[in-house]
Amino acid sequence: MRVAELIRKLQEIGYDENTELTFSCTDGETGEYYVIPFEEITYGEELTGDPYENDVIDIEVNVDSVEEYIKAKAEVELEKQTQRVIKALEDYSL
Known about the structure:
The chain contains three helices and four strands. It has helices at about 5-15, 45-50, 65-94, and strands spanning about 25, 35, 40-45, 55-60.
């Protein structure tokens, strides 16, 4: 996303100095919504190894810190694996 696109969208929505900006994700399988903590903004030589030319800015979020998301993903995967084992046992017993 270009910075101009983000600024244009924020202006369209309307914001002021009291507006809070959050980062989030929605689990595609469960539809659950999770807020992701903002970590840092990296740019320029620190990010690309090249002198800063205003071309790339990275906003880092910490998905691993969202324990509810990790737990939900693990539960979904465990259920999938359980169903595979049950299916294999059913097929074997036939």
